[in-house]
Amino acid sequence: MPVKYSFLLPVFTALAPLCSAQTAPQLQKAVQQTVQKVTPACVKLQWYDTLTHEARGVGSGVIVTAEGHILTAAHITDPGKTYKVTFANGSEAIAVALGKIVFQDDTRLPDVAMMKMVTPGTWAFAPMGQSAALHTGDPCVSIAWPESLNQPKPMVRFGRVLETATELGFIRTSAIMEPGDSGGPLFDCEGNVIGLHTAILPAEDWNMEIPVNWYRKYWQALQTGEYFREWPATVSDTTYKGGKATTTWASQQQVASQAHAIWGITGGYCHNITSTIDTATRSVYGMLLKIKGKSYIISKSSMVADKPVLQYNRKSVLLNVIKRDRENDLVLLQCNAVLPGGYPLSSAVAANDSIAVADMGGFLVSPRTDSQVVISVTGSQAVSMPKQWSTGYFGASVAYRKGPVTVTLVRGGSPAAAMNLQKGDEVKRINGLTLDSAAAYGEQMSRYWPGDTLTVDYLRAGKEYSGKAVLTERPVFAATHPVDMFPGGKSSRRDGFKQVFMHDAILTPEQCGGPVYDMGGHFRGLNIARYGRTSVFALPAVLVNQFVQEALR
């Protein structure tokens, strides 16, 4: 039975040889230089209506010639259709889809497609490499636009080649991807395109890439604009000259060795906190701080109840809540005993922590409480993540049409059901604010968090009623796509942040709340949420410092 891969519609795990000509710092520098060099050639692709100027869908691609040839995935293209091309710097252009290849008897393969710029210009491009020259353990870099993040700039990720050819002929890597990344490029550490993103399986280390040699081999056929249902008869390039990486890079073990050295210095600052929320015991990481001789813990507020306990050297240390920050989901706790160690957080320590463009692709280290570390790379500068999934749950839908704000559905077991709101009721006011449209209802609901209380005034059969509801966290529904099936899942509170940076760490929601460092051991921020398959959000160190200083005034 064939393996069912999921196309991407809208920790390293591989072992490499121990001997290497390059060190971990040299590999980091190469990754950062690659990101700077090739990002101008990376593009977001959207189907585009030239009459209405409407752009829909999200995919990614890469320009590989100065004339504007774009390599991408077949499952996001339709030959002859027009596409909007958006660059990382925000500039836009127009391209047309050329040929694509999808087999009649197996639509997973080979997923090869090409576009061409129609907007006049000479374009920045990335050279095509040689996918046949790859080895297990080779480092690789991904730059594309995950749809769930809805950000104007791409996210950078790092991985290793785990298989040079799966049963379908794809390259398998640990560079994590998700819908929106489809067609996006995979680079070697010299800036050559070696693959294009195509599909995933639920496990985070199952990320499939279309070998770039397939594009090189059928280059001429792809320019015809035809939809091929088998390999084209015309073959362009079987020599694959140029584009072959020549450097042997630091292995996974070498990078991990340096990361563990950082744990030896900073790992003692990461601890486990337990507390009880609604009769359920929750666990989350926290960072131990030492300030003016006293011991404090900073952590993720939504995962910490009012009587938390710190697990320290097999003993339970009681913690007192000093202050909470709902906007940044932070909580500062004071230990009821002075503990050894603790990070010396101060204005001087956190002042120089801004994420610069040159930092993209730099290695990051997130200590775990089991003496292990999770290695990732800086995927973005500081961005805003508006509240979407973290709003309080009411459980009543309304009709989006002109006229009264009429309830169309009340979900069983929801706060709306508990206050006896019913289908057909007209919602007049929420917390005293008069609603004149369904849009106003949605806008008002987006302001509230789980735990907030609403007073809802409504009409039923011409008579006005009023009820109160305490909002809850949104219910978690069974995942239907592999992108949502990764172990541990997403954090319940995962957006509504004014400033976070992204990295590709594999952390569970319970492993958030702890610190993240760069490879120099400098504190860069606090892991605050597992947002999705590709991304963990971290609050910059300067925000963490500001919160602590304000809490202790």
Automatic annotation (TrEMBL):
The keyword Transcription regulation does not apply. Transmembrane segments: none annotated. GO terms for molecular function: serine-type endopeptidase activity. Belongs to the peptidase S1C family. Keywords: Hydrolase, Protease, Signal. The keyword Protease applies. This is PDZ domain-containing protein. Pfam families: PDZ_2, Trypsin_2. Residues 1-23 form the signal peptide.
